């Protein structure tokens, strides 16, 4: 058991997961299928939200009650959330430039952009994992346990699992192959990265789920499971080669929703916490008296193993094919790659 799903709220928690999963799939389809949808989701909407965020922080600096009590200001003030939102949105805009061949999106050198932006997003999460590991160690030295209170008033339990998963994240960057193998689909709905097959996707999903489980525990039911499975589901069934675009789109849209409506995950009947909180609840005003980090450790080891295996597989294939795995595509014999390439505009 990863999460505490039982009792009178279990039905609501499961319903909330289905709504988020389905909602992200539908939102991604809206964003990817037309230029207008993409422009609205990743240019107009983020611009409007930026004005909203600035207004909140200006109001808070002036001592306005409406700003100081705003859910975004109270619950989503961490540097990580803003970094992730804007990094993911930048990725979506860059992917549209490649897909529609806007300006530098026509150039050969810009094809490396997807690798760069994904690597940046992974490094943001790795830094957060390492931060939690350090703070957990500091708490152990000063308080006798590993609990530390984040800037968003969530008790986190930092330990060796953060370091293990952070290493897995760094390895995951090295598991991205065929950096220059970026294509626009014939129907102009997708930016394709055919060499990013199931090998990378599984390694990434395991690493990223553990990241959310470690550092966003009160949100991991949604931003861990639902958010990760939505793009993977789409890639598996109808959008071969488009996983990274699906991932960026759903991540950016989810970050926008979560930043504005944090109470959905935090205090509503849909809120779901992991088994880490052995006391059965998470209250910022009450330091936890017990912890169950077993699954944090188990998943961290699985995530590291998956990324080590994936990287070893890439090294083996690159040697057999006598190719540089980053300059060249090395999964060309896989069915997923071939289906994606059949969709690509040559």
Automatic annotation (TrEMBL):
> What stretches pass through the bilayer?
12-31, 38-59, 79-98, 160-179, 219-239, 251-277, 297-315
Going by the entry's taxonomy, the superkingdom of the source organism is recorded as Bacteria
Coiled coil ranges (UniProt) are none
InterPro entries assigned: DUF5692
Keywords, ordered alphabetically: Membrane, Transmembrane, Transmembrane helix
| Pfam entry (one) | DUF5692
Q: Protein name, please?
A: Uncharacterized protein
């Amino acid at each position: 058991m990863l999460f505490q799903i039982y009792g009178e709220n279990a039905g609501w928690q499961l319903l909330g997961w289905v709504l988020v999963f389905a909602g992200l799939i539908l939102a991604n389809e809206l964003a990817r299928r037309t230029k207008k949808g993409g422009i609205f989701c990743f240019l107009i909407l983020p611009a409007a939200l930026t004005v909203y965020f600035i207004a909140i922080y200006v109001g808070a600096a002036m001592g306005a009650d409406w700003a100081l009590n705003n859910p975004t200001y109270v619950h989503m003030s961490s540097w990580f959330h803003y970094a992730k939102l804007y990094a993911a949105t930048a990725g979506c805009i860059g992917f549209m430039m490649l897909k529609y061949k806007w300006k530098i999106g026509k150039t050969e050198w810009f094809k490396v952009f997807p690798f760069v932006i994904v690597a940046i997003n992974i490094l943001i999460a790795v830094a957060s994992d390492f931060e939690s590991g350090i703070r957990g160690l500091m708490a152990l030295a000063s308080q006798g346990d590993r609990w530390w209170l984040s800037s968003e008033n969530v008790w986190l339990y930092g330990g060796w699992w953060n370091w293990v998963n952070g290493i897995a994240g760094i390895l995951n960057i090295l598991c991205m192959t065929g950096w220059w193998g970026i294509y626009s689909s014939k129907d102009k709905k997708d930016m394709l990265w055919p060499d990013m097959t199931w090998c990378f996707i599984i390694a990434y999903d395991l690493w990223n789920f553990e990241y959310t489980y470690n550092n966003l525990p009160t949100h991991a039911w949604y931003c861990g499971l639902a958010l990760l499975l939505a793009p993977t589901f789409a890639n598996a069934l109808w959008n071969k080669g488009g996983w990274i675009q699906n991932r960026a789109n759903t991540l950016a849209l989810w970050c926008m929703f979560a930043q504005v409506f944090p109470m959905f995950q935090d205090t509503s009947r849909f809120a779901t916490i992991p088994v880490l909180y052995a006391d059965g609840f998470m209250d910022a005003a009450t330091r936890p008296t017990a912890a169950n980090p077993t699954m944090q450790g188990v998943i961290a080891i699985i995530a590291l193993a998956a990324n080590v295996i994936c990287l070893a597989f890439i090294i083996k294939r690159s040697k057999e094919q006598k190719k540089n795995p980053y300059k060249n595509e090395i999964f060309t014999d896989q069915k997923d790659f071939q289906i994606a390439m059949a969709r690509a505009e040559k």
